Amino acid sequence: MTNSSSNAMWGGRFADGPDAIMEAINASISFDRRLYAQDIQGSRAHAAMLAATGIISPKDAEAIREGLLTVLSEIETGSFEFSTALEDIHMNVEARLKELIGEPAGRLHTARSRNDQVATDFRMWVRDQLDATEAALIALIRALLSQAEAGAGWIMPGFTHLQTAQPVTWGHHMMAYVEMFGRDLGRVRDARVRMNESPLGAAALAGTSFPIDRDQTAAALGFDRPAANSLDAVADRDFALEFLSVAAITAMHLSRFAEELVIWSSTQFRFVALSDRFSTGSSIMPQKKNPDAAELIRAKIGRILGAMIGLFTVMKGLPLTYSKDMQEDKEQVFDAADSLMLALAAMTGMVSDMTANRDALLDAAASGFSTATDLADWLVRVLGLPFREAHHITGALVAMAEDRCCDLHELTLEDMQSVHGDITADVFAVLGVENSVASRTSYGGTAPEEVTRQITRWKEMLT
Ligand code: ARG
């Protein structure tokens, strides 16, 4: 005898219903309700295939189709009552379908299991996220391209060790991030191609004896093909791990850029002004304008990388095929996806709105002996000195300038000649930051014409 409180979906052999704590640890409906659209879409495709192959009648399939559409609209209008006793989204939808259409609802689960069902639903959800991430990355890249185009020739200091190194251009710096986010875009696209195989029809793990048509359901759900091994189809979550890996790398890039914006917008640097729309005030210090959005973007890597490590840890060591551990795959992915989308949107907004302070950038570029390498290169090119010797002489001139609290170009020719007698007045031509930047025309270098060439290449690639 089945106890009336045992689970209606699988309680046939159970005399007792679950303990409240069992129900609490087992249920996933509080979070996997986010899969409702994919779940209903998957069920519709499955029912249509069951009818096309003669496994269920066209009449039952039609009742199922209409019932599922009703369930969908109930969920979307908020009138659907989710039940923890029904564990997850799959059983919540099916139970409501039964209330709505009666007996035919029971035929929907023919030749299917929640194992291939959840794998299919989740794959479609992650696929949507990859598509959304692709669009968000393109928007960010476009915003960076606009900044780069406006300031292809604006001079700023380039840093190593956060010490002034050599002058570069604003456009060049923006384009560095275009390259980084461009590779993230490539990773998103790669991951999508690899993951786009349908688990549906793998059933519990071994496939099914019903004459199903997996190509039909795969095509109906936008997959390129059915997954070729039923055990793999229900057991792996590498598609989610790939998404999290891509998300973590993107979040790392966002974090570095966000850190630069925090530094650049400080009173000490004043390289950029962030818009009011992406800043906040202080409740106690009226003068303050805080780069909170940049700081939060800088921090999002914490939870995104946490999600990645979390899911890797859940999956490691699991024997094939499905284990309930895998129900722990969703919340981390949901949270990481939400965080990533928000961070990308906020960064795009900040980049679109921010104004570079050209004078501050130029002042900073001209100080800190940023053309010392140009001086050393000149000694090599014009006087024919070995680079090591040129480096040494330049070092002595930097020390002299530092001593006099002036910059390299402010030393006199006599000063220069006191260190190396062959230096001529021509040297002053390379000590200006404009000349320095304009001279770096090597492929990928900082010369404005080269930066412009890269901007054009990217704009063509994005159209
Ligand atoms: N809620 C489950 C999950 O998210 C669905 C699959 C359950 N399958 C099973 N055989 N218990 O993983």
Supply the key terms.
two-stranded antiparallel sheet, two-stranded parallel sheet, binds arginine, mainly alpha, 18 helices
* Radius of gyration based on Cα positions: 31 Å
Largest sheet: 2 strands, antiparallel
Q: How far apart are the termini?
A: 66 Å
Bound molecules: arginine
Task: Round the mean pLDDT to the nearest integer and report it.
Answer: 95
Quick one: how many beta strands? 8
Uncertain stretches of 5 or more adjacent residues = none
Helix tally? 18
In the sheet with the most strands, the strands line up as 1-2
Write the element-wise H/E pattern from the N-terminal end onward: HHHHHHEEHEHEHHEEEHHEHHHHHH
How helix-rich are the residues, as a percent range? Answer: 55-70%
| Class by alpha and beta content | mainly alpha
- Measured by DSSP, the beta-strand proportion falls in 5-15%
Q: What sort of overall outline do the alpha carbons produce when their principal axes are compared?
A: elongated
In short:
By secondary structure, this protein is mostly helical. The chain has helices at 20-26, 29-32, 36-52, 58-77, 89-101, 114-150, 170-195, 214-220, 230-235, 238-264, 292-315, 330-353, 358-366, 372-383, 387-403, 413-419, 433-439, 448-462, and strands spanning 155-160, 163-169, 197-198, 225-226, 272-273, 280-281, 289-290, 355-356. α8 links the parallel β3 (197-198) and β4 (225-226).
Question: Would you write up a description of this structure?
Answer:
This protein starts with 19 loop residues before the first helix and ends with a helix. The radius of gyration is 31 Å and the shape is elongated. Strand 1 and strand 2 (163-169) form a beta hairpin. The protein contains 18 helices and 8 strands. The longest helix has 37 residues, at 114-150. The chain has helices spanning 20-26, 29-32, 36-52, 58-77, 89-101, 114-150, 170-195, 214-220, 230-235, 238-264, 292-315, 330-353, 358-366, 372-383, 387-403, 413-419, 433-439, 448-462, and strands at residues 155-160, 163-169, 197-198, 225-226, 272-273, 280-281, 289-290, 355-356. It has a two-stranded antiparallel ribbon. Strands 3-4 form a two-stranded parallel sheet. The chain has 463 residues and is mostly helical. Helix 7 runs parallel beside helix 18 (448-462) and helix 10 packs parallel to helix 12 (330-353).
